[in-house]
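Worked example 2:
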Amino acid sequence: MTNFEQISAKIQHWAQARSTVAAWQEAGLRVVFTNGCFDILHYGHIHYLAAARDLGDRLVIGLNAAASVRRLKGPNRPINDEMTRQYLLAALAFVDAVVVFEEDTPLTIIELLQPDVLVKGGDWQPDQIVGSAVVLARGGEVLSLPYIEGYSTTAIEAKIKNQS
């Protein structure tokens, strides 16, 4: 399998992701889930995602679809198209699967995948994290990881606009 095929295989549809996660869990692996727009990948994202992966054996990323990003962030977002965002995340060595969701929150995909650990960035308190009740109900963990100040897609977008 080529490197590109290996990356492509990490991008999964819902049913495929459910089967993949179930197989990992049956093998005794701890599955971590996080989600976001991941529009312009930056240091804060890399730091956060690497730390999330350190919490388990596999990392699954729920990626907001383009329409969802527009509803949440405004009409000029996302900056990078959905395919680009999927492949950038899937190319990271510590990411094991990427699954796109159309809704404004990842609740339905979390209910489907039943991860062992649910993680968001430090700007979220664990009790505010969508899907926390689902994960906690099955004995999992919900964690808020430290936020790296000064790194955000919004800040990058503003910097680009101010220099043009």
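The CA atoms of residues 64 and 89 lie 12 Å apart. The first strand starts at residue 31 and ends at 36.
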